[in-house]
Structure prediction request, 286 residues.
Amino acid sequence: MRADGDVLHVLTEWARSDDNVRAALLTGSRADPDRRIDFLSDYDVEVYVTDVDPFGRSDESLEAFGRIMARWPHRPRGTLRDDGITRLVLFRDGVRIDFQILPVAALPVTIGDVAFRVLVDKDGLAERLSPLPASARAVARPTEDEYETLVYEFWWNAHYVPKALWRDELPFAASMMSEAVRDRYLRTVLEWFVAVQSGGPVNLGVRGRWLKRHLDEETWAAYEATFSGADVTAQWEAFFRAVDLFRWLAQAVGERLGYRYPEQIDREMSDYFERIRAHPRADGIL
Prediction:
């Protein structure tokens, strides 16, 4: 795989040599000195051009970076803005470059990432740019209304998992466990727990990707235990472990912030979940 300096050199020379390109910015992890990067870290590049249309017709200009192995979208189109072109490109040597190709008029005053690096600026367009404050992307402590809403919504949405497990509806049970119970609610309360323990906002990355770095071994192990395979018994156990972990985290956050944890819905819904698990399947569908 190419060295970081080699990729950035090619990017810079490519932008300089094309008169249509007026500015090119490196954003994301490779522009942030405080971020950990590895050989799988991609290059996020915002390219500001006079005319977007050539990039919408083909990827020929991007072949200057190497032989393309895979790309998204399949055909050039805008995904963030209707007037732009998104090209996420994985080259055969493993280098990945994510291009957002935008009209010059789209160059913002505040860049969306905490850090950015100007690669090319032919017209002084980037001089007005300022980074978004780190606190704007960090997880903060919840308000009392946010806390209460999340807890009550958890107990409602969680009940779909035991119903689906009892009915032997594996795809739906797995989807609700992953997308709702674990990702939407458990991850959110984990992030709040970290923010409360840290004493202020903390950046945990997209969808909590850096949670492990901020949790003690015991709490992380409890979170890991909420994952399971296709075995129904293991899924039941993972679900109840997720419920127990959510309860403990939500109570800890609420106690720290002075918010009341709703014990009654916890007690009644937990009992309901147990009754579903114990209900004989021969009696029919609930």
Observations:
- The chain is about 45% helix and 15% strand.
